[in-house]
Amino acid sequence: MKKTYILLACMILTLVGTMLFSDVALAGNKPDPTGSSTGTATEIAPSKPGTPVSLDDVANQVGHNKIAINLMWVLLTGFLVMFMQAGFAMVEGGLTRAKNVAHTFAMNLMIYPLGMLGFWVCGFAIMFGGVGALATLGGYSGLNHEIAFTLFGHTFGVAGGTGFFLSGHYDVAVFGLFLFQMVFMDTTATIPTGAMAERWKFSSFVLYGIAVGTIIYPVYGNWVWGGGWLSQLGANFHLGHGHVDFAGSSVVHLTGGVCALVGAWILGPRIGKYNKDKSPNAIPAHSIPMAVIGTFILAFGWFGFNPGSTLAGGDLRIAVVAVNTMIASATGAFGAMLYMWWFKTKKPDVSMICNGMLAGLVAITAPCAFVGVGSAALIGLVAGILVVESCFFFERKARIDDPVGAISVHGVNGAWGIISLGLFADGTYGDGWNGVAGTVTGLFYGDSGQLWAEIIGILANVIYVGIISFIVFKIIDKIVGNRVSAKAEMEGLDVPEMGAEGYAGIKLDKNAETPLSR
Amino acid sequence: MKKIEAIIRTSKFDEVKEALHKIDIDFFSYVDATGVGNEIRKGDQSYRGTAIDTSYIPRRVLSIVVRDVNVKKTVDCVLEAAFTGEIGDGRIFVSEVAEAWKIRTKQSGDDSLKGSYEK
Lengths: 518, 119
Prior knowledge:
The complex is a heterodimer. Chain A is an all-alpha fold. Chain A is built from 16 helices and two strands. Chain A has one domain (60-491): Ammonium transporter fold (Orthogonal Bundle). Chain A is globular and about 85 Å long. Chain A binds chain B through residues 280-285, 340, 344-345, 347, 349, 351-352, 388, 391-392, 395, 405, 510, 515, and chain B through 34, 46-53, 56.
């Protein structure tokens, strides 16, 4: 009883206190509970103290605020994309076996610093050294050195050449751009860790992590986003607006997917994945809840990935981009669920639904700013079905072992996203994109050139990333070796590779073991 | 004294435990075990479109040591409580126990197996 009285007394005291002191305003310090009168003309200081505020002062402040909103938007969405690293870690760690969990998570942990440092050293310079004026971030134009060659009277930019270690560009716009583009690069970098999980030697992975941030990702990135030759296809050859990729279906996801494909192919399948008659065995996920939470973190981070790619908070198209993004993720998950349920195993496979949601997001990444919401729904739905068929194809026909479906989610659906932009772009956005007058318009809305530019971009990606990844993995193989020993793989990589179990003290069940190749 | 080893469905454990307590078998121990059948039941479970080998069946092994006088009622009790009629209801094995001790009271033989209510 006593405790009840004390609690009641606390409540009464709080109520009385609030009533007594709520209306006491200090002199000259009027509170503004609605917020309607906070921030007024007095915020604008005259350029010369003592003089009245001039129109120039007001205009300067407006301009400053405009860029402030854009830079805030770039940073905030960049922070969201950075958090996607946690989502990748959980999806990849959850969809693999418990005996490898420390190894899988360690790769997802270390790819962030490794890729970042590589990007700081030279990746950013190669990708954005020739991007030109940063229009939405105040117009800084120091990143102006594009290495290009001229062929048949046309200029082909291939790589940027300034901004190594960010030196010489001590500028807020450049730093904001660096943060935003760095987290995008790390998204690419962490895709192969899923496809190559459970058998990749950690030392080999570390060397790969540096290579992806310094050379694999930035060169293709320059061709599309840094002012390179793919972005010039429109100006040079009248193919639409050149290769257009709003937020990275090709630059980020297709690059990661192709690299993952080459890596998983070179590594070979996990022990026990295939029987002697080449039929596959299931190697079940050790934590579906972890994979589902990871999928939600990724879907959340995608609201930074796509809307952030305007690089401008003042570009109100972000609302359309965000809605297209969420609609495509919904139809992607829905499509994968129904397709598995009705046509495949008669059950709505949870891991495949995760893949379906991510596939929808990957596919809408390129076209999200250029298509209507109906097209976005269709793009996501196709992605959800495509990811299932693609997973089955790589597992049963190509026999490339991809534990988490990364090749299908990012590679195949990255390509689909790029093609879908060339098909469904409805001509309502992107005026003057890549220096070509008019809006970005796809085949179904009257511009077949745009589709060709998209297809050329896909071919360039597969050829460049495929070859450079192959070379990188082969060189690493010569230095440290790519694959762990069969003994380590059977025991689980946690102890032989990382020195300690991820789940110390927890007994692993039959599903944690390696299936027998019959 | 006899040891009754009963391999039962994990899902039937609670019913068996209640039934044993009702007939005054107060104490027994159990371990979780995995039964391995020779049939691979494809199609029950699948992961990413591939059937999972479901010949590994979770089972619970009860180890019940009782006085000779209680053997029959204990066996009958488990036979009744663990029964479903489906394939895989389990097995019961009875074996001789040479000696038994109760650590706290230092009692041995049949005395060590009497419940605390039996003075």
